[in-house]
Amino acid sequence: MIVVDTNALMMPVECDVRLFDELRRLVGDQPLVTPEAVVAELEKLADGNGKEATAASVGLDLVDRCEAVATDADYADDAVLELASHPDATHAVTNDKPLKRRLLDAGVPVISLRGQHKLAITQP
Predict the structure, then answer these.
(1) How confident is the model at residue 7, as a pLDDT?
(2) Which of the 8 DSSP states describes residue 65?
(3) What 8-state DSSP symbol labels residue 95?
(4) pLDDT, tens digit, for every residue of 15-49?
(5) How far apart are CA 105 and CA 46, in angstroms?
(6) Is the model's pTM score more than 0.90?
(7) pLDDT at position 38
């Protein structure tokens, strides 16, 4: 399973990335999960104004393509790390640099933006 972070779901608007096509290109068809804390973060961001709110609204539409999973963590980054540390998790998707470092330190391969409209995998 692939764990998807908040900013990954916002990439289609913010970075003009075809997120699901890129994930299929990199890792094939795998189940996508996102923590419920990520859904809550998207809802909060979508209530604002501007490009970030628009990206979050699109992210909320896209989150339907993922399974929302409950975690012990309330903070989205901690929840992503919790799910990505599960034995069934193969990758996490994020552009958040501090979270990416935490994931790599935990031995989790990270899929993130590389170049203008492409994703790439960074191995721990």
Answers:
(1) 92
(2) G
(3) -
(4) 899 999 999 999 999 999 999 999 999 999 999 88
(5) 31
(6) yes
(7) 96
Work out whether strand 110-113 and strand 119-122 pair parallel, antiparallel, or are unpaired: antiparallel
Question: Both tokens of residue 62?
Answer: 């896209």
Domains of the chain as residue ranges with CATH: 2-122 (3.40.50.1010)
Q: What is the pLDDT of residues 34-92, one digit of tens each?
A: 999 999 999 999 998 888 899 999 999 999 999 999 999 989 999 999 999 999 999 99
Q: Cα–Cα distances in Å, from 81 out to 52, 57, 101, 107?
A: 23, 23, 11, 11
Q: Can you tell me whether residue 82 is helix, strand or coil? A: helix
Sheet with 119-122: strands ordered across: 67-69, 32-35, 2-4, 91-93, 110-113, 119-122
Nearest-angstrom CA–CA distance, 75 and 79:
6
> Using CA atoms, how far apart are residues 20 and 9, in angstroms rounded to an integer?
10
Per the document, the length of the chain is: 124
The answer to whether 65 and 34 have CB atoms below 8 angstroms apart is no
What is the C-alpha end-to-end distance of the chain, expressed in Å? 17
CB 103 within 8 A of CB 77: no
